[in-house]
Each structure stands twice: as C-alpha cells, then as structure tokens.
Amino acid sequence: MKIFLTYLNNYKVPMALWILFGLINIIIGYLYQVPLERSLLWLAICGFIGIAAAAFHFYNYYKSHKELTFHQRQTHVEIEQLPPPANLIENDYQALLEKLNAAFSELENTKTQNEQEILDYFTMWVHQIKIPISALHLILQDEDNDEVSEEMKEQLFKIEQYVELILQYVRLGSASTDYHFQKVDLDVIVCETIKKYASIFIRKKLPVHYERINQRIITDSKWLSFVLEQILSNALKYTNEGSISIYLEENAIVIEDTGIGIQPEDIPRVGERNFTGFTGRRHKSASGIGLHLSKQILAKLGHRIKIESEPKKGTKVFIVFDPKQITTK
C-alpha cells in the first residue's frame, strides 16, 4: 500500500491533467449541446485504457523498486546488475553512477596502497629499532651494578613493548590484516605471557596466582596473546602490592589484580580511543591505546571484554569467549 501511495504521489501531475482534460471535454460537449451520453462514453473508454496503461506502468515501477531494494541489501553491487534504464533521465543517472563507482575504486586502491606503504615503513622501522635494543641488552649483561642493570633492562623491555604496540596499531587498521583461526590451548598462551613478564613480577615482588585453564578455543593465537599482554601489563603497572591472579570463570579468562582500581564513572568508557580516565590523569604515562586496541581486536576475534573494578581494591578484566568457540581439550 505504501508503494502504491508513493506511486500516486510521483505521478499526480499526469493524473491531474487526465482528469482536467475529461472535465474540459464535458464542458465543451455541453457548450456545443453534444449528448451527455457521448461524453460519458468517451470518459469511460479513455478511463479504461488509462487504468490499463497505469496498471502496466505501476507493475514495472513496483518490479524496479523491489529489484533495487534487493540490491541495497547486498554487500557489493555492480552497475550491470541494476535494472535497465527506462528513460533518458535514468540512463543519465546510471552513467553518473558509473563515474562515481570508478572514482571510488580509484580512491580505494590509493587508500590500500597508502596503508601498505605505512605498514611497510613501520615494519621496517620496528626491525631497525630492535637492533640497538638487542645491542643494549648485550651491553647490560656486562654491567657490574646489578641494580642499575635490572632497572635498565626493565626500561628496555618497556621500549620493546611500545615498539610492538605501534606495529600492532598500524596492522589492526590495515585492510590487508588477516586472522588465522585455529584451535588454541589457552594454558600455552597464558604461560608464555606470564613468562614474558616474569622479570617485572620478580622486581615488584608480586606473586602471580595462576590456575590451569585446561581449555581450548577457536581464535587467532597471535592477536589473543597481544591482548593478554596488554591486560597483564596494565595490571602490573597499577599494582604495587598484593598479587595478580589469572583463572577461568565460566566462558572467560579473568585477570584480577589488587591495584588502584578504576573509578565507577570511568568503567563504561574504558577502551575508547585516547580515554585514560582518572587513573590516567594521575599516571601521566598512560595513553589508553593498549585497551583500545584490545577491545578492537577482541571484537574482530568474536570475543569481548568486560571490566569490574573498585577504587583502591583492584580490577577484574574478563576476556569473554563465545560458547561456540570453546572446544574440548
């Protein structure tokens, strides 16, 4: 019914002219004393022909509308798939669409090329910067002052993490980034992450309570490892006493700390780009980019992040998995 009313509104001028011509015919017939039956017969014949023609025209109108609506729901549409133009104006519109489509394709190709150039540059930069970092690690092994050496090693570790963060940030925004989904043993990923941060645990004298998860899920191990590293890094950064625990709760890995916590009003915005909240304002080095990337990555992997926290009591970060992605050991 809505389409029919739209059709009437679109062609109201021709219909109004048809009615006007019928009235003119009746008036002229009256002035020339033509029998009324003749004028009514003319109206009936013209009306029948007009209604038949309008019905055929409405059928084509309805058919074209449905075909275009179908194409609107498709993710990709070629110009050749559109209904053939019914008149010169529609032909002009399709020609304009072809020009716009060609311009968009060229812009998309340029964008992809620029992204790849940026990714190649940062990849090269990361590999180059790792050379002096490795050299500094070797130099520090010969240092006599163990306390200074450990402090410098920790700072170098942070530099390596920030370098990796830059690279992942660029990769995540690239259209060419692919994801390799397979069955992954969560215990392997968690143990590797804990081992990577072992020196910081020792330096800060923080115990880690880890309960074996004994679970396998379908995910990308490289990206999930990156997310776990970011969450564990934040837990270590904001925890100076107490402990950090990692365990499985229902369909989620939980990283729980006894750190400074997060203000209740800040929790809904955690993970937004450049948002650091009250905690970030107290710690000037916070950028919020780690959790922002983690949230974006988990969404692409089909997982999600949930946070529970109380100021001065600690924070729980949940990496929640879809039950369909969980497999048996």
TrEMBL record:
Output the PROSITE patterns linked to this UniProt entry: HIS_KIN
One Pfam family assigned to this protein is HATPase_c
User: Known EC number(s)?
Assistant: 2.7.13.3
- Which reaction is the catalytic activity of this chain? ATP + protein L-histidine = ADP + protein N-phospho-L-histidine
The record places domain Histidine kinase at 124-325
Q: Could you tell me one molecular function GO term of this UniProt entry?
A: kinase activity
Question: Organism source for this protein?
Answer: Oceanobacillus neutriphilus
Top-level EC class as recorded in UniProt: transferase
Topology term for the membrane: Multi-pass membrane protein
Q: Does the keyword Transmembrane helix apply?
A: yes
Put simply, this protein is called histidine kinase
InterPro entries assigned: BphY/WalK/GraS-like, HATPase_C_sf, HATPase_dom, His_kinase_dom
- Keyword terms: ATP-binding, Cell membrane, Coiled coil, Kinase, Membrane, Nucleotide-binding, Transferase, Transmembrane, Transmembrane helix, Two-component regulatory system
